[in-house]
UniProtKB/TrEMBL annotation:
InterPro entries: DUF7373 (IPR055797), DUF7373_C (IPR056463). This is Uncharacterized protein. Residues 46-232, 239-371 form the DUF7373 domain. Residues 1-20 form the signal peptide. The keyword Signal applies.
Length: 376
């Protein structure tokens, strides 16, 4: 499930001595089957020294102040792409194509976008907050970005409209596309930030309601932001070192980052329910790389979060699966085309997904070793 940057072909068996990880005496050494992942511990992240790294770090922090799609309408239960930090003008093109070279994008600093749809996949939203150099740039961005959308093409026929209740500075457009889909998009500057929401459905009243609700819910979150942190440390507590690094030639823009509590909830279908479960487990930080790591409030709060992860992974095709060799404490499941494994070490919860059970087992076994080092 995870796309990655680095492929290390060497396989490694992590050998520990003494007792099994669940405390049961054994007759021989413990051999965790980690495959190639045993040598793929994520390095310490250090500081965001480059412009792009600094933009991504601020975007990741902004994610802690984004709306929840499920709160706009409970039918929005299926997370979609793009959902990611926006660190460059090129990133913005995954939200609105043909915009990277606009004059105003020279003043673009960072942003975050999220997307969601319903189970039938006949209605959906894309929402973003983009931060610009100053208020004037954000207002110019509303005009220039909407102008791109208003250009007539063989597949697009947007026109400016008004949506009741939206502020006067908002620019709203509508397109009655092929197949009866009604699309509404709104661009609303709020200080140096731009709130953008796109929604579509067969009934025009639904996307109009969604863009209004998105603005109404997003603005208070931005108003409460306060002073933006100038701390350039990507991972002050070293949580990423408790994960497996990316494996491959491409990089997931969500990886290599540590997200706050509310941001962590963004990646679940019912974000408010996820946030409640995160709070119950005392989880305030979530590290995401090739595998994922959560830090609970205490060792006693990890089991509840693992229960939540297992339930979230389950569907009609899922089945309980064997724990990895010599790692009986790990819980694993399979479902059509994927497998997941979960384990706790002290206050930490590790989460790994693979294309099959053996792959997920190797990842969680490797992550277990990294988590032991992190826990000390």
């Amino acid at each position: 499930m995870r796309k990655s940057l680095i492929a290390i072909a060497a396989a490694l068996t992590c050998v520990l001595a003494g007792c099994a990880v669940d405390g049961t005496p054994t007759r021989g050494p413990i051999e965790l089957q980690t495959g190639k992942y045993g040598s793929m511990q994520t390095r310490s992240a250090g500081e965001a020294t480059s412009d792009v790294a600094w933009a991504k770090l601020r975007a990741v922090r902004l994610a802690d102040h984004m709306i929840f799609a499920h709160d706009l309408d409970p039918v929005m239960v299926d997370g979609k792409l793009p959902t990611q930090p926006l660190a460059t003008p090129a990133n913005v093109q995954v939200v609105i194509p043909d915009t990277a070279d606009l004059p105003v994008m020279k003043d673009f600093e960072y942003g975050f976008t999220l997307s969601s749809g319903n189970e039938k996949n006949d209605a959906g939203i894309n929402h973003a907050v983009m931060v610009f150099r100053d208020d004037a740039a954000a207002s110019a961005a509303a005009r220039q970005l909407s102008d791109v959308m208003l250009k007539r093409t063989s597949y697009s026929n947007y026109e400016r409209v008004r949506v009741a209740g939206m502020p006067s500075e908002s620019i709203t457009v509508h397109d009655a596309g092929a197949g009866g889909k009604q699309t509404v998009a709104a661009f609303t500057p709020v200080g140096q930030r731009l709130i953008y929401t796109w929604a579509d459905d067969r009934n025009r009243s639904w996307p109009e309601r969604i863009v209004k609700a998105a603005y109404d819910q997003q603005k208070p979150l931005l108003d409460a932001l306060g002073t933006v942190s100038d701390d350039r440390r990507i991972d002050p507590d070293g949580l990423l070192t408790g994960t497996v690094s990316e494996d491959g030639d491409s990089s997931n823009p969500l990886h290599g980052a540590v997200y706050g509590q509310r941001a962590a909830a963004l990646f679940y279908g019912d974000q408010s329910a996820a946030l409640a479960a995160l709070k119950k487990s005392g989880i305030e930080q979530f590290a995401w790389n090739g595998t994922q790591l959560y830090k609970a409030g205490s060792e006693g709060q990890t089991a509840g979060w693992i229960d939540y992860l297992v339930k979230d992974f389950e569907d009609d095709s899922s089945r309980k699966a064997a724990s990895p060799q010599d790692l009986n404490a790990a819980r694993c499941l399979t479902r059509d085309g994927a497998a997941g494994c979960f384990v706790a070490v002290g206050p930490y919860v590790g989460e790994a997904y693979g294309k099959d059970l053996a792959d997920a087992q190797q990842q969680i076994s490797a992550q277990y070793g990294f988590m032991k080092k992190l826990a000390g």
